[in-house]
Amino acid sequence: MSAPATGPLRRFWRVLGRQRRWMLLGVLVSLISTLAGIALMAIAGHFIASMALAGATGAVLNYYTPAALIRAMALLRTGGRYVERLVNHEATLRVLSRLRLWLFDRLLPLAPARTGFLGHADLFSRLRADVDRLEHAYLGIGIPIVVALLALPLVLAVQAAYAWPVALLTLIAATAAAVLLPRWLIVRSRAPAEAMVRDEAALRAAVGDLVRGAAELRLYGADAARETRIHVLTDEQQARLAHLDALQERGQSLIPLLAQTVAAGTLLLGAAAARAHTLAGPDVVMLVLLGLAAFEVLAVLPEAFTRWGATRAAAARVFELVDAEPAVEDPAAPAEPPAKPDIAFRGVRLRYAEDAPWALDGVDLALPFGSRVAVTGASGAGKSSLAAALLRFQPFESGRIVWGGRSITEYAADDVRAAIAVVEQRTHLFDATLIENLRVARPDATRAQIEAAVHAAQLSDVVAALPDGYDTWLGEGGAHLSGGEARRVAIARALLADRPILLLDEPTEGLDAATAQSLMGALATLAEGRTVLLITHRLEGLSHLVDRRVRMERGRIVAEEAMAASSAVLRSGRSSTLH
Amino acid sequence: MSRMNMHRSRSRMTHADMDEPPAARAKASDAASVKADVASVANDWLTQQQGGVRRWLLSAMGLGAAGTVLLCVQAGLLAWALNAMLLQNANVRDVLPAAAGFVLLALVRAACAVQARRFGFEAGRRVVADVRKRVLEAFRARGPAWLARQSSADLITRTVDGVDALAPYYARYLPQKAAAVLLPLIVLVAAFPADWVAGLVMLVTAPLVPLFMVLLGGVAERASQRRWVTLLRLGNQFFDSLQGLVTLRLFGAGARRRVLLAERSEAYRRETMSVLRVAFLSSLVLEFFAMVSIAVVAVLVGFRLMWGDVAFTHGMFVLLLAPEFFLPLRALGALRHARMDAVSAAGDLAALLTRVPPGHAPVSTPSPAVDAPMHPPCIELEDVRFEYAPGRAGLDGVTLHLAAGSTTVVVGASGSGKSSLLQLLMGFHAPSRGTVRVDGHALDAFDAQAWCARIAWLPQRPHLFVGTLRDNVRLARPDADDMALERAARAAGLDAVLRDLPQGWATPLGEHGYGLSGGQAQRVALARAWLRDAPLLLLDEPTQHLDEASAHAVQQAIAELRRGRTVVQVAHRLDAARTADQVVVMAAGRVIEAGTPAQLLADRGAFFRLLQNEEAA
C-alpha cells in the first residue's frame, strides 16, 4: 500500500475531531500576536525616521496616530501572547485527552491477541514515545508552520505595496529559509536520525544485559568488557547527536543570516529608490525593520521540520498498531448465555498464523458444570491456548467449543468472559489504591462484600499492615506489594467477581514453596461451587483443588486421570492413562 | 493531589534502597521535607557536575557574549547607513560598504553561534559520558546481588534516558542562563552612550531581569513543575491502563476505565487551565515590559529626534537594540523543560552515585597472596555475618564446613539466606564479621576474578545476552574452540536444541532474538558450566521454573556435571537432599540444622518436618 506523503498525519488530524476547533483558534491568536510584534518594529522604525525628518526640515507631522499605533501594537502583542499561550495549552490538553481515549478505544478490543507489544518493554516504551510525539505535534509543528505560512504572505503583500523588488528579495530568501533549508535538513538528518534510534536501542539492550546478567558477567569476568562496550556505544550515540545538533544549529543560524542579508539588500534597494524619489526615506527604514522582524517567524521552522518526519513516522507506527483486526468478532445476533453452562471442547484446533504449527491440535475435553480439571504440560504444550480459546481471546479454526448446548461462537465474547473469573499468573495491579484495584472486578461492591472477599483471600492481615489500609496507593504495577500479596489480590478480585467458572492460570508460579502453600486455603475457598479449570506446568501442591487431571503435549491431550482430592468426593478411583 | 506528589517523591527517594520491605518504605518520614530535600540535593548535584566542563561552558558563554558585541556593531552600521540614506541623500555607493560590513558581521555571528552551540554540546557530551561511566561503576561497586534486587527496567531508564536528560541542561540551559544576565548588560553598555534617555528606560527595566529570573525560577517554576509532575502521573495512569487491558477485559471493566480516564484528564485540564491563567501572568508581565520598553524607546526617541535632542543614527541604534534586550531571558523560558528533566534525573542519579551502602563492595585485593585452587576446594565458614542494608542481615553467625568434592544441599524458606550464602561464596558480598576460608586461606586472599574463574553457577533463570548462541555459551570461556563448544553442548543436552534451530550456533538470542524456553535456556547455562569446567559448582534451584519433563532432563545433566566437584545446591524440593553428603537447613539467615540426611531424619528436627510437609501436600 503506498500511502500519500502526508497520509499518517492527515489521519491523525482526522482523529482529533472536535478538538480541531481549539487548534484553529490557537493558530488565529498566534497569528495576531505575531503580526502585532512585526508591525510594532516596522511602525516604530517609520515613526522615528519621520520624526527625525520632521526635526531636520521643520515640517509638521501627525505624530499622535503612529505613537498610539505603537502602543496599541505593544499591548496587542502582549495580550495576544497571553491569550495565545492559554488557548494553545487548552488545545494541547484537549488533543492529549482525545488522542489517549482514542488509543484506548482502539486497543481495548485488540487485547490480548493483537497487543503483544504492550508486554514488551522495548516496544511499549516506543509506543509511549510515539504518543508523546503526537501529543506535542500541535505546539511543535502545527503552530510554527501554519503561522509562518500565513504571516509571510501578509508581510510580502505590504512590501510589494511599497517596492516589489524588496518583496521579491524577501520571497527568495524566505523560500530558501522555509522550504529549501528544511528540506536539506530533513534529507541530511534522516540517516543519522535513524542510526541514532538504532544506537539508542543497542545502548538500552547493552545496559539491560549488564543489569540483568550482572551475576553471569561477574562470574565469567566479562563485566569490564561489557562496560567498555557501553562506553563505546555512548560515544557513538553522542557523536551522532553532535552531528545532528550541528546540522540543526547550522540550519538555525542560517535564518538570521538570511534575514540580515535581506535587510542589507533592502537598504541598498531602498537607498536607490529614495534617491530616485520613488520611495520615501521613512518607508525604507520601515521596510528594513519589517524584513528583519518577519524572519523571526521563520526561525522556528528548521526545528519544526526536523520534527515533522519523526512525528509522521510516530503516527504511522501508532496506526499500524491500532489497525489490526480484533482476533474474535461477535456474532450479529448474540445468544443469551446460560447461567451454569456445561462446557466441552470437541476437536478444537487453533493456530496463531497460517503457517504456524497447531497450538491446539484436536482437543477434546469435557467440563460439565461443577467439574474441576487440571491441565498440565510443558510450556508450549497448548495450555494457554486452551484458556485463550475458552476466553474468546483467540479464534479456533476447526472443531467446536460447546457452551451450555450451543457453540461458543453464538455468544458475544464479553458475555462468555462475564461467566469466567480468572486468576492470572500476572494479574495487573493498577497504579491506584487497593480498593480501586479490587473494585475493578466489581464496581458496585459494598464494603462488606469487599471485606468478605479480602478475608477469604487471606488478605486481611496485609490490609491491616498497609499504612492507609484499603486506601493505600499500590504504586505502578503494585510495586508496594510482594508477589504473594499480589496473587492474593487477584484471588480477592476473582471472589468479588463471583462467576460460575474459575480459570486458574499458574496460580502459584513464581512464588516460593512456603508462600504457595499459604495460598492453598484461599484458592480452595475460591474453588467452592464452581467449575474449575486449573492450568499449571506442575501440579505438585495444587492437586487437592481438582478431581481430574489431563496432560497436554504438542497441542493434544495425551493423558487423563482422576485424582483423589481432599475436598472432592472420591470418584470410582479409576485411573485411565491414554498414553 | 498532594498524595500523588508524596508518592512520587517517596518512590524516588527509595529507588536506590529497595532493600526495605514495602511497609517500611511506605512509612517514610514527612513527605514535604523529603521532597524539598530531594530538589536541593538534585540541584547541588547538577552544580557539582559543572566542575569538569566549566571550560566548555565558559567558551560557549564567551562566544555568546562576542556575538552580542558584534550585534551592537551591526546595529551601529545599519543605523549609520539608514541615517545616510534618510538625511544625507546618500547614493547606493555610499552605503554599500556599510551593507557589506553588515552582512560580513552576520556571517561571523552565525559562525559564533554554531561554535558556541558546539562548545555547549561538548559540555553536555562530557557530562553524559562521565556520569554514565560512574553509574556503571556504581553498579559494579554495589554488585550483582544488589542489582538483582532492583527493577531492571528502572535501572535501564535511569542509565540511558536519565543520563541523556542531563545533556541539554549543560549544553543549552546553562549557557542560556548566563546569556540572560550577561547579554542585556552588553546591550545596556552599548545603548547608554548613544541615547541616555533610552538607556535609562532600559536601566529601569533592567532590574526586572534578575527579578524575573527569581520569579520564573521560583514561583512560576514550582507551579510549572507541579503541573508537569501531575501530567507525568496522568500519562503513567494512561499507560498503566494500557498494560492492564487484559485484566480490564477479563472483568468487563474496559468501559468503566475509559470513563475514569476521560474524567481524570478532563479534571486535570480544568485544574491546569485555572492554574495557568495565573501562572502565565508572570510571563505576561515579562512580555509586557519587553514590548513596552520597545514602545517607550521608540516614542521617546521619536520626540527627541523631532526636538533635535538626539541624532537619528543614535536613535535608530537604540531602537534596533531594544528588542535584543529581553530576548535572552525569553529564550531561557523555552529551555525550562530541559532544566526540569535534568533536575528530575539528577535526584535519582545523586541517590545512586553518592550513597553506596557499606558491605556491598567486594574490594579486590591489590596483590593476591594465593593462587585460586584448580582442584575441588574445601570451604569453611566461621561465624559469618553480612548485611545488605544497615541492620538487615542476609546471613548471621553462619558456620559451615563444605568438604572437598562433597555435595551440600541447602534448604529453607525463601528469605532464609540460601541465596545470600551462594552470593557470599561467589564474592558478591563481603562478610561484615567472621571468615570464609578456602583450603585454609581466607577468601579475600584470592584475586576476586581468579576466584570467580573457579566457580560454575546455575541460577534459576540464566540470562541470555544479546548476541548469538555461540557468544552466549562462549561467555564462559572466550577462547574455546568449536570442538570444545560441541563437547559442552553434548554434555549439556544443548545439541538437541541446536538441531531444532535453523541457524544453529549463529541463532541470535536476547531481547530481540530467538526466545528459548526455560528448559532450553537452562541448557545454555549448563553448557557454559561444562565449558568453564570449574572445581566449585553452585546450583541455585536451576529446575525451579521448569516443567516436569525438562526438569528431569536438566537434573540428569547436572548429575553428570557434579562429579569430581565441590557442590553447593540450594533446593526447595527435598528429593535432592536425600542423596546429598550434607544437608543444611536455614532460617532467618542462620543455620538451624546441618548433617547427613540420615542423621537429620533420625533427629526428627526441622528437616524431618519439612519432609513430612512436602509429602502431605
Written description of the protein model:
The complex is a heterodimer of chains A (579) and B (617). Chain A is α/β, with parallel strands linked by helices and 579 residues long. Chain A has two domains: 7-322, Up-down Bundle (ABC transporter transmembrane region fold); 343-562, P-loop containing nucleotide triphosphate hydrolases (Rossmann fold, 3-Layer(aba) Sandwich). Chain A has helices at residues 7-15, 20-57, 64-107, 121-135, 137-162, 164-212, 214-219, 223-275, 281-298, 301-322, 383-390, 413-417, 434-439, 447-456, 460-465, 483-497, 513-527; strands at residues 343-350, 360-367, 372-376, 398-403, 406-407, 420-423, 501-505, 531-535, 548-553, 556-562. In chain A, the strands form two sheets. A six-stranded mixed sheet of chain A has the order 6-7-8-3-9-10. In chain A, a hairpin with a 2-residue loop joins strand 4 and strand 5. Chain A is elongated and about 115 Å long. Residues 1-5 and 565-579 of chain A have low confidence and may be disordered. In chain B, strand 4 and strand 5 (441-442) form a beta hairpin. In chain B, helix 9 (208-243) runs antiparallel to helix 11 (254-306). Chain B contains 22 helices and twelve strands. The model of chain B is unreliable at 1-33 and 358-365 (pLDDT under 50). Chain B has 617 residues and is of the alpha/beta class. Chain B has two domains: 2-7 and 30-354, Up-down Bundle (ABC transporter transmembrane region fold), CATH 1.20.1560.10; 372-453 and 572-617, P-loop containing nucleotide triphosphate hydrolases (Rossmann fold), CATH 3.40.50.300. Chain B is elongated. Chains A and B meet through helix 2, helix 3, helix 4, helix 6 and helix 7 of A and helix 1, helix 2, helix 4, helix 5 and helix 6 of B.
